[in-house]
Amino acid sequence: MSAQESPSQPVLDVQGVHKRFGGQHVLRGIDLTVRQHEAVVLIGASGSGKSTLLKTVNLLEQIDDGRIVLAGDDITDPRADVDAVRARIGVVFQHYNLFPHMTVLANVVLAMRKVFGAPRAEAERRGLELLARIGLGDKAGEYPDRLSGGQQQRVAIVRAIATNPELLLLDEITSALDPQLVGEVLDLVSELKAAGSTIVMATHEMSFARRVADRIVYLKDGVIIESGTPEQIFDHPQRPETREFLARVSDPFTA
């Protein structure tokens, strides 16, 4: 059994992470451990540090203190190969970031071919299989602007999982969608969770968080205020800040 597969070894271990933007202290000593096949959902108001935390894990933002360990490797070590680290992590952001001049299939297979060197036929076979699985096999030859927002976001998710990443980061992936398209994207995330993906996800969709998460982490002002199972956080929150936040949240998603 490899280090990545060891049940005792976290896939992700965030240790005492601080991040500042000028005089703004955005992350204030974050400690977070995520184990294999676990789905951890980050909740909190805008500006609480959720997106910044995800960006530090993918090395899009450099931390000021602490360290981040991916399957035993300190990826915040200055000697770490940033491109090699990012190749191990699948990321999907609010906006789909599909290449408009490339077909849906070309978008999906790009990393498989350019980063991992998969032969074209092999990459396209896997890409078509994944697109068919999410009901978009007939869109493989289309360009992204011919797809709905929900379809584009599902393609972005498939692109992120095509290389079998060790960790999947999802940052408010439904916030740019019309409400009627949210469900189809969240259904795909539920399928990925059921298939055993290791996921860290920031979302405002509280009922979805309850449904898919193994653990909920509530952030406020760059600090983890409370962490626990969905039942603990939503039904029996311990901290007054958590209770106040949940009381304010409006939930447009119907589970």
H-E order: EEEHEEHEHHHEHEHEEHH
Largest sheet: 6 strands, mixed
Category by helix and strand content: alpha/beta
What is the CATH C level class, in words? Alpha Beta
* Helix share, percent: 25-40%
Beta strand count: 10
| Helix run count | 9
Beta-strand percentage range? 15-25%
Strand order of the largest sheet: 6-7-8-3-9-10
Question: Describe it for me?
Answer:
It is a single chain. The protein has helices at about 50-55, 80-85, 105-115, 120-135, 150-160, 180-195, 205-210, 230-235, 240-250, and strands at about 10-20, 25-35, 40-45, 65-70, 75, 90, 165-170, 200, 215-220, 225-230. The chain is about 35% helix and about 25% strand. It contains nine helices and ten strands. By secondary structure, the protein is α/β, with parallel strands linked by helices.
Offer a concise description of the structure:
The chain is of the alpha/beta class. It is about 35% helix and about 25% strand. Helix 3 (about 105-115) crosses helix 4 (about 120-135), helix 3 (about 105-115) runs parallel beside helix 5 and helix 5 packs parallel to helix 6.
Structural key phrases:
ABC_transporter-like_ATP-bd, Rossmann fold, amino-acid transport, 10 strands, globular, 6-stranded mixed sheet, about 35% helix, disordered C terminus, about 260 residues
